[in-house]
Specification:
Helix content is 65%, strand content 9%. The chain has 526 residues and is α+β, with helices and mostly antiparallel strands. It folds into two domains: 396 residues, Up-down Bundle (Outer membrane efflux proteins (OEP)), CATH 1.20.1600.10; 74 residues, Outer membrane efflux proteins (OEP), CATH 2.20.200. The two termini are 60 Å apart.
Length: 526
């Protein structure tokens, strides 16, 4: 009879255990199913209504839908930075190449952007780590003593006891409603935005170095013009003085020649000051003391012809070429995913906790038979009485997303404005440069003819002075026009994201970029 009761009791316990296991299995299956569901809106790249071609380029381009362009990935952003941020090499100037490369290696703004990129990457790695259990180790020793009334007659040593414990604790939160998935997607997008900002800083630093460099070369060219004209005017002054001394000239011609000569000399210190300031600025941009490049940049310089600018691609190419657009778009993607991440706080969160270890009253007994301890079980937390606060957090995230969308749209429009303005300015500056070159050549011929006529006694010295002044002005304006054409071309490169599709290297990398976009994005998707 007793055996039947024991068997019945064991059967009941077995059935109860099986029921408990089944319930745990069912709960786990339900949790895993909920983990596959993601709350919140799925990100879709916004449509950007752009014209089919730039208004300031003769290139014809067929209409295309910018919304169909692949969303940038980490790989494509890095590829774009490598391919498009080397525009300075197209100027075929070894000195400029060395300065830009030194700036990219030591510029402090770029170091700041790289530090922020590393911070964003750490946040992304932390989001991935949340997918796995958290395991910690612990150990403790406790000494306790009973009061004398609790153990009557026991000596003090008998009332004292020690307790040793050591083990491992683990906790794992099941990602219900796609919480971890949304968090990973958001942090990945923010890391991509930070990488695009590094790329943008590279373009900005290289562009600023190139701009300062060509402005310096323009100032040096103007200095050369002023010095050459001063030499010529000094010779004219010597001639007028000799003519006065020989009684065939007059003091008025001598005074006019001297005034023009001194006026030209007065321009030289101003130009030297401006040139020194440009050299100092380049030194700081390259992370060096201001005068570090003074000797190198003061050497004789022979400018190379500027590269051609056509074709420049289509406005839709700005969506993947401009780092500021890429950064704004990736920020919008991150904000969109954070909406779903915040919405998961509206629902319960399940955490499985467990511990395996040993406990004993003697240190030497730890690990022995009968000292093992363990526990395991799920826990549920739910902000049931804090729903209003969570809802406000969700609404705040939606507002941030709307702001990110507006910022993206504004960035696209400003990029288009920047590109159109740069192309327009370069075209007009290049035309001005060509006119100035013809004017300077004509001015040189006019001075030669005026001096010949003056020496032959056909015309007066006033004509020589007028043609010399006109030549100085024409050559000075030509030096400025050449510098403006070069700096405006740098602005075109910057406005187009560092390069354009006319560059064969950019073409080749762009093909690889589009081919890798979908694969890399699929790998990054949790």
């Amino acid at each position: 009879m007793r055996n039947r009761k024991i068997a019945s009791s064991m059967s009941a316990r077995t059935g109860s255990a099986r029921t408990g296991i089944a319930r745990v299995a069912l709960a786990n299956a339900l949790a895993l199913a909920l983990a596959g569901c993601a709350l919140g809106p799925d990100y879709v790249r916004p449509t950007s209504p752009l014209p089919p071609e730039f208004a300031n380029t003769p290139e014809a381009a067929s209409p295309s839908m910018a919304a169909n362009a692949d969303a940038p990935s980490s790989e494509s952003i890095a590829a774009g930075a490598d391919a498009l941020a080397t525009f300075w090499k197209r100027f075929d100037d070894p000195v400029l190449d060395a300065l830009v490369e030194q700036a990219l290696a030591a510029n402090h703004d770029l170091r700041i952007a790289q530090a922020r990129l590393e911070e964003a990457r750490v946040a992304r790695r932390s989001a991935y780590i949340d997918l796995f259990p958290t395991v910690t180790a612990s150990g403790s020793r406790q000494r306790s003593a009973l009061a004398a009334p609790e153990a009557p007659g026991a000596p003090p040593e008998a009332r004292r006891s020690d307790y040793y414990e050591a083990g491992f604790d683990a906790s794992w939160e099941i990602s219900l409603f796609g919480r971890n998935r949304r968090g990973i997607a958001a942090q990945t997008a923010f890391a991509d935005a930070a990488q695009a900002q590094v790329w943008g800083t590279q373009v900005a630093v290289a562009g600023e170095v190139a701009r300062q460099y060509f402005e310096l070369r323009g100032l040096q060219a103007r200095l050369d013009v002023a010095r050459r004209n001063a030499d010529a005017q000094r010779q004219s002054l010597a001639i007028t003085r000799a003519r006065v001394d020989n009684g065939i000239g007059n003091d008025l011609d001598r005074a006019r020649a001297e005034a023009q000569y001194e006026t030209t000399l007065a321009q030289i210190p101003q130009l030297e000051t401006a040139a020194a300031s440009a050299i100092y600025r380049i030194g700081v941009l390259t992370g060096q003391p201001p005068a570090a490049h003074e000797e190198r940049l003061s050497a004789p310089y022979e400018p190379a012809p500027l590269p051609e600018v056509t074709p420049v691609g289509r406005p839709e190419d700005l969506l993947r070429r401009r780092p500021d657009i890429v950064a704004a778009e990736r920020t919008l993607a991150g904000r969109t995913n954070l909406i779903g991440y915040r919405m998961t706080d509206l629902f319960p969160r399940i955490v499985f906790n467990g511990r395996v270890g040993y406990a004993a009253e003697q240190l030497g007994d730890l690990g022995g038979s009968g000292t093992r301890t363990w526990r395991f079980g799920p826990g549920i937390t739910w902000a049931a009485f804090d729903i209003p606060r969570v809802l406000q957090q969700v609404n705040a995230e939606k507002a941030r997303t709307e702001g990110a969308l507006a910022e993206y749209e504004q960035t696209v429009l400003e990029a288009l404005e920047d590109a159109e303005g740069a192309l327009n300015a370069y075209g007009r500056n290049a035309a001005e440069r060509d006119h100035r070159e013809r004017a300077a050549r004509a001015g040189t011929d006019a001075v030669k003819l005026a001096r010949m006529r003056y020496d032959a006694g056909i015309s007066d010295f006033e004509t020589v002075l007028d043609t010399e002044r006109a030549l100085l002005q024409s050559e000075d304006q030509l030096a400025q026009a050449r510098a403006q054409a070069a700096t405006s071309l740098v602005a075109v490169y910057k406005a187009l994201g560092g390069g354009w599709i006319g560059d064969a290297a950019v073409d080749e990398r762009a093909v690889d970029e589009r081919a890798n976009d979908s694969a890399s994005e699929a790998q990054a998707r949790p």
